[in-house]
Amino acid sequence: MPFSLHQGDALMVMATLPDQAVDCVITDPPYNSGGRTTTERTSRTARAKYVSGGVRHHLADFDGENKDQHSYGYWLTLNLTEAYRLSKPGSPALIFTDWRQVSTTADALQAAGWTWQGIATWHKPAARPRKGGLRQDSEYIVWGTKGRIAASQNPVYLPGLYSASQPRKDRQHITQKPLAVMRQLVRICPPGGTVLDFCCGSGSTGVAALQQGLDFIGIEMSPHYAGIARSRLETALNQTTGPDDLGLAGPEEQ
């Protein structure tokens, strides 16, 4: 089966999977950042945090955005430790984060046993300007490997900067990542390998993996978003992607 999708708590689901079952980890956990006060950081819903007032779409909320920084670091360390067990030697791990949580994410990655290899940038051209200051138009990807980089297994040369806006057409998740970016990132997985996303949301990582000929294991807490992910993954199985169709697309193409 090219993909398996599990609905439930990531830590509990990963505990049921065998050692060294995956070749790559790519995930976009709830960032648990922002807010001027502890109350704002820990009591706001994800929708209140990420969705501007007056927006037209009515995308479903999701849990997991109410941790303070220490709790988030502990939670992420536990999950990345289990993902480390599931990964083969040399496997890469790519973790999305924002500027507030870069240091916490890097600490969690290393505490879980991974070798920190650097940070990549996801630039969002459609980000709103910020009066009186610099525009916050980037998020980040903290990445590492299980041991040394296994370059001989997959000798690709990937960029450290990706530029694409969040999808606007047929958007299905509040924090959905562009397929144009995800299809570039999954290339870090060796050909024919398996990608794990333990916070898979609406399944964009999995769709990108399937489109690039990779297998996928996804875990999603929300029953609502797990259902959307399954539908998107099943659709992706019936679609083919040309080998040269890897450019970063505009919002209408994502």
From TrEMBL:
Positions of the DNA methylase N-4/N-6 domain:
22-229
Q: So which domain of life are we looking at?
A: Bacteria
Any Gene Ontology CC annotation: cytoplasm
Q: What is its EC number?
A: 2.1.1.-
Keywords associated with the record: Methyltransferase, Transferase
Q: Which residues form the signal peptide?
A: none
- GO BP field: methylation
Q: Annotated Gene Ontology MF terms?
A: DNA binding; N-methyltransferase activity; site-specific DNA-methyltransferase (adenine-specific) activity
Q: Which family does it belong to?
A: Belongs to the N(4)/N(6)-methyltransferase family.
Q: Kindly provide the name given to this protein in its UniProt entry.
A: Methyltransferase
Task: Give the species this sequence originates from.
Answer: Streptomyces triticirhizae
